Amino acid sequence: MDSSKNNQAYPYRILIVAPSLDIMGGQAVQADLLYKNLQADGVEAGFVPHNPRPPGILYQLTKIKYVRTLVVSILYILKLIYHIPHYDIIHIFSASYMSFVLAPMPAILLARFFDKKIVLNYRSGECRDHLERHGKFAIPILKKADKIVTPSGYLVDEFADFGLKAESVFNLVDFSQFEYRPREKYEPRIIVARNLEKLYNIPTSIRAFQIVKEKYPDATLTVIGEGSAEVEIKELAATEHIADITFTGRVERREMGDLYNKHDIFLNSSDIDNMPVSFLEAYACGLAVVSTKAGGIPYICRHEEIGLLVELGDYRGLARCILRILDENGLGQRLTSTAQQECKKFAWTSVRQGWHKVYRELYHVKK
Questions:
Q1: 44-49 and 13-18 as β-strands: parallel, antiparallel, unpaired?
Q2: What is the third-level CATH fold of 3-172+347-366?
Q3: pTM of the entire predicted model
């Protein structure tokens, strides 16, 4: 299909406002994938990062604490003022707490000032706590969006409890970067692929691994990412003298497929969560998934069908689930086979329909 036909099919112009890949995380990856796929469809799509990189001498100022926030915020608002008037629909990615104030809120208010249609793409598993603590301030801002869209039914339900209507469009996975590897036997090669932040409770994964290692001394654990809890997590591993844990630090997205395929079990012990893209990537690569039941995880990882789930903080339960996969013939194969089928929901060929429905409805209302 040539671009002129595409533009006839999708006449609306979409501005995506989201973190750039300078901040490696789920929002940035999802925004990048959506932007590229919309452009491939022939949509006139633009992008304004929450975290624009200042030019020249201004970049040097970002190395000063607090000054960085001021400089980046001013540049961000100037970019919004320049770009918003050129688009029909402003698609704003959103997290919670102070991030909501610094990034989505200015975009929402400016889009409303310029009389543009607004999609607020809220993606934080901390939604309930955010609205309970700051609802008097946040809810009036949220109501200025024409549509609130989340990646999961879990957040749709959370918003409903606060009288806010939301709908869901699934996360995207670029399956070209991941290769499914069937495993005849599952080895104790375990991977944790979440940022090293307190809400993901990596210490619980480490304690689970410690138990697994008692039975399987050759077990290995690879921990991907970086974050504010890094020192605490590494100190735990050192204090407990747990061998064979590798901390990789930040890993580029293009390298994740190879890392997944060097492991057999994906372990997650988060306390707060929504719909982690890393789960979908693990499914695509054939890893068996063991996790806590945090937030929206049961919506995409049905217990005993797609993965194995335990209560929050239950490191012994996580260890038992890992040992089941290692010891029970056929269990890992059954889980990963179902998980691979689940992946089809998250390809652009499926997700495209949801986003274009959202945009089409808003564009016709505007017209």
A1: parallel
A2: Rossmann fold (3.40.50)
A3: 0.83
* Token duo for residue 53: 């990189």
Contact 107, 142 (CB under 8 A): no
**Which pLDDT belongs to residue 4?**
41
- Gap between the Cα atoms of 36 and 151, Å rounded: 18
Residue 172's nearest CA partner among 65, 313, 277 is: 277
Closest CA to 292 of 316, 315, 309: 309
| Span(s) in the chain for CATH 3.40.50.2000 | 3-172+347-366, 175-345
- As given in the structure block, the two tokens for residue 310 are 């335990």
Evaluate if residue 57 carries a pLDDT over 90: no
Cα angle for residues 363, 169, 301 (degrees, 5° grid): 180
CA nearest neighbour of 272 among 361, 182, 178, 204:
204
Range from 54-58, 146-150, 197-201 carrying the lowest mean pLDDT? 54-58
Spatial separation of the C-alpha atoms in residues 334 and 327, rounded to whole Å: 14
d(CA 152, CA 125): 10
pLDDT at 272 over 70: yes
Write the pLDDT tens digit of every residue in 316-331.
999 999 999 999 999 9
Q: Give the mean pLDDT of 77-105.
A: 96
Instruction: State whether the Cα torsion 93-95-98-101 is positive or negative.
Output: positive
Residue owning tokens 């607004």: 118
**Residues counted in the chain:** 367
Using pLDDT thresholds of 50, 70 and 90, give the confidence band for residue 45: very high
Quote the tokens at residue 55. Answer: 């030019």
CATH 3.10.129.10 fits 175-345, yes or no: no
